[in-house]
């Protein structure tokens, strides 16, 4: 191929570079199938804490959320500072609940929705912990859990922490318009949850085990409407879930609960249809955090979204129910729409990813 | 091995994506229904009625000329909208009103005052002043452009 007309042929297609690499087998491989990891040392979630705003507290999970923001600005001057404070607050309380010191944590994974993941970084500067910022949009919590579990299982530390959250006001400004702007939302749009949660994972005797994880591929089915995130994310959830079932040779009925992050009502219905097409039926044991975090009459259209939505439900509802022994084996898949307003305005479709962890009592 | 490109990706998945997006389009809840049209109609009508009442009041009470009474009615509408935006009521009206509350001057006043409230946190110059017209800017640009085009057509018609 001729790149510039300099009279020189450049081999951009790398036809000459492809070699068959001689590969050696890892003796203690922790990977099964194509995308699934097995954690042999069984890192456990032994402490978690979450905070939500009054709107989420008024929703169906009312009796499970135990800490509520005093006001949406959390006694700060701006919403961005409030979001960062929510991170600090939940992480501090999770560490306190765990009964350890902050410097006993080996690594902190944190991410949020804002540009340059500022809430996470401003939270991390207050703690004496190695920090890695991650961005997975609404899948951040599971991404953090997987990274922590990999670090711990691989022997690179004993305790890891992940914290994530989102704030309605900051996300509105980041992705849409001013808060008080009187523009009608699409009927299929989602409401960014104001919530944050921190989870501490470590090698301890008691807690909820993270036994398997499945890192998803980016799926893009050509949805270009950034308001319709549920429809954009459903194929990503389907791809990861199907791959996990194939890798582990199981089906949906083998699990007590399958929880998706924030597909919303439309997205979770689409996921059911897509899964049926692939031959896996999702029955009564399937729920979606986004679709169930708000009541119908709270004017949130399809339900909640944002990093905090799945994270807060994980802490307040799923982990608690697992500790009580109601659920033994739970698949938790958080989906993320990796969109930026700029590229969507340029007419591109939305790439989405979904990560999965298997939690066991 | 070919380097993968975005266009190739789109070409490969064209059929699947078309099928999926068509289905999504089919099942997504629709925005425009008879109910929303009716809401827009009566809320827009109420706003216009309010404008007319203000206009008449200014004319009768202060015995002003039509031009000045009109300006005063507009200013009063803008003030009411800005106040309602500030106390967080206008977006609830707009939730039902839609185009009905957006098309009159109330929509423009709301776009500016909501941006002013939102971006105040970044300071007066680089926050408030520079983001003041983020929503209303396109309205102004397109308003001027379309009135220019209409004026041009009007002028050309007038020549004959």
Describe the structure.
The complex is a heterodimer of chains A (361) and B (160). With 361 residues, chain A is α/β, with parallel strands linked by helices. Chain A has 2 domains: 40-173 and 187-201, Peroxisomal Thiolase, Chain A, domain 1 (3-Layer(aba) Sandwich), CATH 3.40.47.40; 208-360, Stage V sporulation protein AD (Peroxisomal Thiolase, Chain A, domain 1, 3-Layer(aba) Sandwich). Helix content of chain A is 31%, strand content 21%. In chain A, the strands form 2 sheets. In chain A, strands 1, 2, 3, 4, 5, 6, 8, 9, 10, 11, 13 and 14 form a 12-stranded mixed β-sheet that branches. In chain A, strands 7-12 form a two-stranded parallel sheet. By secondary structure, chain B is mainly alpha-helical. Chain B has a domain at 34-133. Chain B is 81% helix and 0% strand. Chain B contains 9 helices and no strands. Chain B has helices at 6-12, 14-27, 34-62, 66-86, 90-97, 99-102, 105-118, 124-131, 136-159. In chain B, helix 3 packs across helix 4 (66-86), helix 4 (66-86) packs across helix 7 (105-118) and helix 7 runs antiparallel to helix 8 (124-131). The longest helix of chain B has 29 residues, at 34-62. The mean pLDDT of chain B is 88. Chains A and B meet through helix 7 of A and helix 1, helix 2, helix 5 and helix 7 of B.
């Amino acid at each position: 191929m001729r790149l510039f007309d300099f009279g020189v042929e450049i081999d951009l297609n790398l036809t000459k570079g492809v070699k068959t690499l001689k590969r050696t087998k890892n003796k203690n491989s922790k990977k099964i199938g194509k995308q699934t990891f097995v954690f042999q040392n069984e890192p456990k979630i032994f402490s978690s804490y979450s905070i939500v705003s009054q709107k989420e507290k008024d929703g169906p999970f009312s009796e499970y959320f135990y800490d509520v923001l005093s006001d949406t600005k959390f006694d700060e001057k701006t919403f961005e500072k409030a979001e960062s404070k929510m991170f600090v607050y939940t992480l501090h309380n999770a560490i306190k609940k765990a009964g350890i010191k902050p410097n006993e944590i080996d690594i902190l994974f944190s991410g949020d929705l804002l540009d340059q993941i500022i809430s996470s970084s401003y939270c991390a500067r207050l703690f004496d912990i190695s920090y890695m910022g991650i961005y997975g949009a609404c899948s951040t919590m599971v991404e953090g859990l997987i990274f922590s579990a990999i670090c711990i299982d691989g022997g690179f530390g004993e305790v890891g922490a992940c914290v994530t959250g989102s704030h309605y006001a900051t996300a509105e400004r980041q992705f849409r318009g001013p808060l008080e702007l009187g523009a009608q939302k699409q009927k299929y749009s989602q409401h960014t949850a104001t919530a944050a949660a921190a989870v501490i994972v470590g090698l301890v005797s008691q807690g909820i085990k993270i036994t398997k994880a499945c890192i998803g591929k980016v799926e893009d089915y050509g949805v270009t409407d950034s308001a319709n995130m549920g429809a954009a994310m459903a194929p990503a959830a389907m791809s990861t879930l199907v791959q996990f079932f194939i890798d582990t040779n199981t089906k949906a009925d083998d699990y007590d609960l399958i929880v998706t992050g924030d597909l919303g009502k439309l997205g979770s219905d689409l996921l059911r249809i897509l899964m049926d097409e692939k031959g896996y039926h999702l029955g009564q044991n399937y729920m979606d955090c986004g679709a169930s975090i708000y009541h119908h009459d709270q004017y949130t259209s399809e339900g909640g979204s944002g990093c905090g939505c799945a994270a807060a439900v994980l802490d307040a509802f799923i982990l608690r129910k697992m500790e009580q022994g109601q659920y033994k084996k739970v698949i938790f898949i958080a989906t993320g729409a990796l969109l930026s307003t700029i590229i969507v305005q340029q007419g591109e479709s939305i790439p989405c990813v979904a990560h999965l962890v298997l939690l066991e009592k | 091995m070919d380097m993968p490109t975005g266009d190739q990706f789109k070409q490969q998945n064209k059929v699947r994506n078309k099928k999926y997006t068509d289905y999504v389009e089919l099942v997504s809840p629709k925005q425009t229904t008879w109910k929303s049209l009716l809401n827009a109609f009566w809320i827009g009508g109420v706003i216009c009625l309010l404008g007319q009442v203000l206009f008449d009041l200014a004319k009768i009470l202060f015995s002003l000329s039509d031009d000045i009474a009109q300006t005063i009615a507009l200013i009063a509408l803008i003030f009411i909208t800005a106040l309602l935006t500030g106390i967080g009521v206008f977006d609830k009206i707009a939730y039902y009103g839609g185009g009905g509350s957006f098309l009159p001057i109330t929509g423009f006043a709301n776009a500016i005052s909501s941006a002013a409230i939102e971006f105040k946190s970044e300071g007066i110059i680089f926050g408030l002043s520079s983001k003041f017209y983020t929503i209303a800017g396109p309205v102004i640009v397109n308003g001027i452009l379309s009135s220019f085009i209409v004026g041009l057509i009007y002028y050309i018609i007038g020549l004959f």
